[in-house]
Amino acid sequence: MNDEKIIKLLKISIVIGIILLLLGHYLLSYAKLPEIMGVKGIVISAACIAFGLIFSLPTKMYLTFLIMKRENKANQDQQGK
């Protein structure tokens, strides 16, 4: 896979992660799922937040490394001219 496809997949992963984080927060704070379902509601909300973090954090780090790599390559190309 080339960089463009990887970047697109990582951006989709970040969006999914943010949506899961927001869903977990919504379930805890506004839907009051723990009050309705008890421990199961807490587990569901915590799972949404945990998977949101799993999806979003590593992809942000990888995208940062790709951006740094591109900038270094652009700087080297610019210095070579």
Strand percentage lies at: under 5%
Q: Shape from CA axes?
A: rod-shaped
Count of DSSP H/I helices: 3
Largest sheet: none
> Could you list the spans in which at least 5 consecutive residues all have pLDDT below 50?
none
Helix residue percentage: over 70%
The topology string of helices and strands comes to HHH
Number of spatially distinct domains:
1
What class do helices, strands and sheet pairing give? Answer: mainly alpha
Number of strands: 0
Average pLDDT number:
88
Describe what this molecule looks like in 3D.
There is one protein chain. By secondary structure, the chain is mainly alpha-helical. The protein has one domain (10-80). It has three helices and no strands. α1 runs antiparallel to α3. The radius of gyration is 19 Å and the shape is rod-shaped. The model has no long low-confidence stretch (mean pLDDT 88).
Short structural summary:
The protein has 81 residues and is an all-alpha fold. It has helices at residues 3-29, 33-37, 39-80. Helix 1 (3-29) runs antiparallel to helix 3.
Task: Summarize the helices and strands and which ones pair or pack.
Layout: H1 3-29, H2 33-37, H3 39-80
Helix pairs in contact: 1-3
Keywords:
81 residues, mainly alpha, 91% helix
